[in-house]
Design brief:
Layout: H1 9-15, H2 21-28, E1 36-40, H3 46-52, E2 57-62, H4 65-69, E3 77-81, E4 94-100, H5 108-118, E5 119-130, H6 137-150, H7 160-163, E6 174-175, E7 181-187, H8 189-199, H9 201-210, H10 215-226, E8 232-244
Parallel strand pairs: 1-2, 1-4, 2-3, 4-5
Antiparallel strand pairs: 5-8, 6-8, 7-8
Helix pairs in contact: 1-8, 6-10, 8-10
């Protein structure tokens, strides 16, 4: 698994969107027992906190120590630094394993056998990602210019799996049907710009290579198309994979 987010760990925790209650309700409806869950590649612990409200115990792991340092703390969450593909956990110990916005970075050939090893026989797996933010047609054109034209060559190749809505991602489990879901949040223009400038991995790569932030190039266009609104509703489509081993 690649670590592309340690440099902006604090900003990631502050500016990344959270996930809707409907997503967790959907996942929990497939879970038989709520003893122990593993949130793999937890990042700032967004999903782990939601699991902790339902499960007796949650193990949350990430290969980035800096991400773990900025994660939300709960009494029943244990954070550990380790890769997704090789863990210290005993066999068949988890009722649920989740991966939020990270499965596309994994070494699939190594991760899925590890997942099968640590899931209980009746255990459930869910992984999801979200696409490019949508606001209005005018704002979307500015965002797409940033995403495709300015940053196209700076994205890691695995990002294409999100662009393909997780339809082409390897998934050796028996799938469960997933509903249509999205993240919807009211954000200020400042928050919206900071989300791109401070959390997108391709932006950080661009800055490292060129010494300037590409978001500065499109910020005036975003401000113009924002048209003075205090906030606007931002929508991200969610791509959800769920299943069990047979």
């Amino acid at each position: 698994m690649k670590d592309l987010f340690s440099k902006q760990a604090a900003e990631y925790a502050k500016y990344r969107p959270g996930y809707p209650r409907a997503l967790y309700d959907c996942i929990f409806s497939h879970v038989r027992n709520f003893d122990q869950a593993w949130d793999c590649a937890t990042g700032n612990g967004q999903a782990a906190v939601e699991l902790a409200a339902k499960f007796q115990s949650v193990i949350a792991t990430d290969m980035s120590r800096k991400q773990i340092e900025h994660a939300d703390q709960r009494p029943n969450i244990t954070y550990q630094v380790c890769p997704a593909e090789k863990t210290p956990f005993p066999d068949h110990c988890f009722d649920l394993v989740t991966v939020a916005q990270a499965l596309h970075w994994f070494d699939f050939d190594a991760f899925y056998p590890e997942l099968e090893r640590v899931l209980k026989p009746e255990g459930f797996f869910a992984a999801w990602s979200y696409g490019v933010a949508r606001v209005t047609p005018e704002i979307d054109r500015v965002v797409d210019h940033l995403y495709h034209d300015l940053l196209g060559s700076y994205w890691d190749g695995r990002r294409a799996l999100i662009d393909e809505e997780y339809r082409t991602i390897p998934f050796p489990l028996k799938r469960r049907d997933a509903p249509s879901l999205s993240i919807e949040l009211d954000w200020t223009l400042e928050h919206f710009i900071s989300y791109f400038a401070r959390t997108w991995s391709a932006v950080q790569t661009y800055v490292d290579k060129n010494g300037v932030n590409p978001v500065d190039l499109i910020a005036p266009d975003l401000e113009r198309e924002w048209r003075g609104a205090p906030t606007r509703k931002i929508r991200w489509p969610i791509y959800l994979l769920m299943g069990v081993f047979e």
